[in-house]
């Protein structure tokens, strides 16, 4: 049976932490940030942890990572 292909878009967006959780950079940071409040800008700097349902899907898409 052939090897399963890794979904490259998923690999680029998510990374595994030391504890095995999946983290992702919060979206919407590239431009148009001057009109955002300071609170919103600070919150965008933090990474997001994927929930359990999404983690299972990501593990299927990235079998060798």
Kindly describe this structure:
By secondary structure, this protein is an alpha+beta fold. The chain has a single domain (8-61), classed as Factor Xa Inhibitor (Irregular), CATH 4.10.410.60. A three-stranded antiparallel β-sheet has the order 1-2-3. The model has no long low-confidence stretch (mean pLDDT 89). It has helices spanning 8-13, 38-44, 52-61; strands at 14-16, 22-25, 47-49. It is 35% helix and 15% strand. A hairpin with a 5-residue loop joins strand 1 and strand 2 (22-25). It is elongated. It starts with 7 loop residues before the first helix and ends with a helix.
Distance between the termini: 19 Å
Structural class: alpha+beta
In the predicted model, the low-confidence regions spanning at least 5 consecutive residues are: none
Mean pLDDT across all amino acids: 89
Question: What's the CATH class, please?
Answer: Few Secondary Structures
By oligomeric state, this entry counts as single chain
Major β-sheet strand ordering: 1-2-3
**Count of folded domains:** 1
- Please state the second-level CATH architecture: Irregular
- What overall geometry do the principal axes of the alpha carbons give? elongated
